[in-house]
Amino acid sequence: MLGWTSAQAQDFGWKATLSPVATQGWHRVLLPASVTGRLQAGLEDLRLYGTDGKEVPYLLQTEEPVQYRTLFKPYQILRYTRQPGGLSELLIHNPEQRSINNISLLIGNAEVRKTVALSGSDNQQDWYVLKEQDVLYAIKNEKQTAEVKLLDFPLSKYRYFRLQLNDSASAPLNILKAGYYDTYSEAGKYTRIPIQHFSRKDSTDKTTYLSLDFGQTVHPEQLVFYISAPQLYYREGKVILGERTDGSRRQRKRRRRNNTHLIFEPFTLHSNAPAQVNLPRQKVERLVIQLQNEDNPPLRIDSMQVLQLNRYAVAQLQPNKAYTLRFGDEDVEAPRYDLQFFQDSIPTNLPIVTVQQITLLKEQKPKSQGSKMLMWAVIGVVAIGLGYMTLRLLKDMDKKKKV
Fold first, then answer.
1. Within the chain, which residue ranges are assigned CATH 2.60.120.260?
2. What residue intervals traverse the membrane (predicted)?
3. What strands lie across the sheet with 355-360, from one edge to the other?
4. Are 159 and 118 in contact (CB under 8 A)?
5. Does the pLDDT at position 402 exceed 80?
6. Domain 192-309's class?
7. How many CB atoms are located within 10 Å of the residue 51 CB?
């Protein structure tokens, strides 16, 4: 009962049901444009409730436009043997003869100090020194049973690398892997924003105007054009995001006369690059796009997509339970959950839960009716005051005339 009381105390305007989950554990609830567009700018008014009406803590996650990831790629260890005289030898294969200047060794924890030497060869017969001596210090990882140690050396591309370790004072190290770290970029994941109405006009002023209406407030972050003709093109344009509302009334009029009151994002489309435009995140209900054609024929645009970066509510969910989102309260503050201190403990690659149905809550109506009544009451008081002042002024003028 306490959960329902808490939900009703907050004046949410919308409710969304979630698809059922099959397993118990962490899930990512994908927030579509129909949800994020009705939230506060920072998504502060989002709440997740279970079947019993109790609030379920969650963490917000947002995709990055470009993510840089580091991946450990192992080399093949041909052999790791201990030679007579207390010398261990690790032979690493570099079949593609990549130009490298370091090798990362994954070594089991050991409180020890080892001297090592590195050499390279293309036939395992003739060996050439790369590093005469280096030292591997204590391998001690407080969180895991193994530690990565980096051994750097002059850039080379031998087919084989031989690492010799001095084991005269202790047993050999437990070398689990040898490899390198490769950094690569990965594009963020986006969700499509439905376009309710689309119109196009190729004007005589050599400009193409595209109008996109969404039917509700949304936060577009990327536009994708599908252009079929001409084969070669280079067009400048801009996306109009809205009008400036700050400043005095006189300043707004001046900006309007100078046509500088519009908020827009310039861009260039050309056939040698993907036809994509990234936008700053801003709440809009409509976008107007202008393309300057100069003396060229208008672009043949087969279709367009409007996208937003994926945003998730990450929470622990259980099967055979119904979950709902509530949102759309401009006054409520962001929730404070303990989960914010344990973000690193949540696993990655979680199953995704989707929003099934969005409904308007009845609780929203009394708020709007109350605000209208208050507005009319204020207008009435002001009108009565003005009438009283006008009557007093007329009486004073009559008295002066009689005198």
1. 70-186, 192-309
2. 373-394
3. 47-49, 324-327, 14-18, 355-360
4. no
5. no
6. mainly beta
7. 12
Residue type, 12: F
Q: Which segments within 258-393 are labelled E, that is strand? A: 262-270, 276-278, 284-292, 300-309, 311-317, 324-327, 352-353, 355-360
Structure tokens at 243: 């009008």
Q: Would you call 357 exposed, middle or buried from its count of C-beta atoms within 10 A (0-12, 13-18, 19+)?
A: exposed
pLDDT-based confidence at 111, cuts 50/70/90?
confident
**Residue 140: DSSP 8-state:** -
Is the CATH code 2.60.120.260 the one for domain 70-186?
Answer: yes
Q: Which of 28-32, 223-227, 343-347 has the lowest mean pLDDT?
A: 343-347
Give which of 44, 57, 51 is closest to 4, Cα–Cα: 51
Percent of the chain with pLDDT strictly greater than 90: 56
Q: Is the peptide bond before 230 cis (omega within 30 degrees of 0)?
A: yes
Pairing between strand 175-187 and 66-74? antiparallel
pLDDT of residue 136: 85
Q: Which of these, 52, 62, 124, 132, lies nearest to 309 by C-alpha position? A: 62
pLDDT digits (tens, 9 = 90+) for 183-197: 767 778 999 999 999
